[in-house]
Amino acid sequence: MTTIAVLGAGKIGEALLSGLLQAGRAPDRLLFTERHPERSAELSRRYGIRGTDVATAAAEADVLVVAVKPQDIEPLLTELAPAVGPGTLVVSLCAGLPTALFERRLPEGVPVVRVMPNTPMVVGEAMSAISGGRHAGPEHLTLVAELLGSVGKVVRVPESQQDAVTALSGSGPAYFFYLVEAMIDAGILLGIPRAVATDLIIQSAVGAATMLRDSGEHPVTLREAVTSPAGTTIMAVRELERHGVRAALLAAIEAARDRSEELGREHERD
Ligand SMILES: NC(=O)C1=CN([C@@H]2O[C@H](COP(=O)(O)OP(=O)(O)OC[C@H]3O[C@@H](n4cnc5c(N)ncnc54)[C@H](O)[C@@H]3O)[C@@H](O)[C@H]2O)C=CC1
Ligand SMILES: O=C(O)[C@@H]1CCC=N1
Question: In this protein, which residues make up the domain named Pyrroline-5-carboxylate reductase dimerisation (predicted)?
């Protein structure tokens, strides 16, 4: 059975570990590294999995999943380069960082797969997009698709689309959380107790998401079905249009894509 080590067990690293455990992976086939000892101890306690150092992880694991912030990649690559063998698959979850950066810094021939997941991985509902680097063969992409398929949906994309994917689905959950937060505030504005407003909005979000996924209908059709002539919804839609919410989303997601590209450029000459 494949042994997987997560290098950098923060929010997304923990989401992956917990998702893989929930999907039935054996705890003794999972490892992690974490620079903060208290965090490491807490994760071992919570999940019954072993924290270790990068050299041990590289020696024991078949798959090394890099989950540090893009800004922290340099010291990690310096540690990893002498430790990683040609038979090990390196999977990067880092926003913006191209596979070419890893290929430059790791021994020749090490296969690298770039992935953009998202945090709903923690409930088995991740959306992950995967792209292979120069030395990644179909068997590596199949292995990564299988791993991430156990914690959500997987799509293969050309690496040139990964910055856009990062802006759409990588950051995407944050936009929905932001919307829910704002809608709960609207409930407060209208005098509804916070706990009730929270239940109303979260269940509406879950219901709408399930319809989007399961009905096969276009979002426009679903929205039109809620929008009665001279009714309440159209009054709200008029305000959303007046305040440029659609344009704001287009600009926001474009800005996120630009930042992903910039994170990659910051490491271009390393
Ligand atoms: N949070 C999210 O929604 C998503 C994050 N990502 C990517 O995942 C990566 C991690 O993001 P988060 O989990 O949000 O960040 P985070 O800051 O929560 O986690 C990073 C972890 O790495 C540890 N770390 C840093 N350098 C280390 C080293 N040399 N050795 C061992 N541990 C080290 C830190 O202590 C921290 O716990 C980033 O590259 C981000 O772009 C990708 C998709 C979604
Ligand atoms: O905000 C970030 O940079 C990371 C990448 C995608 C989601 N969170």
Answer: 159-263
Can you say whether the dihedral through the CA atoms of 166, 172, 175, 177 is positive or negative?
negative
- Block residue for tokens 């694991």: 61
| Res 268 pLDDT > 80 | no
Give the position, in ligand 2's atom list, of the atom nearest the Cα of 259. 3
CA 55 to ligand 1 center in whole angstroms: 19
CB-based burial label for 107 (10 Å; 0-12, 13-18, 19+): middle
Mean pLDDT in residue range 197-217: 98
Tokens coding 169: 């689905």
How many whole angstroms separate alpha carbon 71 and alpha carbon 6?
17
Of 71, 151, 87, 72, nearest to 119 (Cα)?
Answer: 151
Mean pLDDT of 143-158: 97
On whether the CB atoms of residues 79 and 54 are closer than 8 A, the answer is yes
As a whole number, mean pLDDT of residues 240-253 equals 98
Kindly state the average pLDDT of the residues 207-212.
Answer: 98
Q: Does residue 270 register a pLDDT over 70?
A: no
In the annotated binding site for NADP(+), the residues are 67-70
Q: Predicted confidence band at 86 (pLDDT cuts at 50, 70, 90)?
A: confident
* Residues within 6 Å of ligand 1 by CB: 7-13, 33-36, 39, 67-70, 72, 75-76, 93-95, 116-119, 170
Going along the chain from its start, the domains and CATH numbers come out as: 4-165 (3.40.50.720), 172-260 (1.10.3730.10)
Which atom of ligand 2 is closest in space to residue 170's alpha carbon? 6
Name the token pair of 93. 């979850």
pLDDT of residue 1: 81
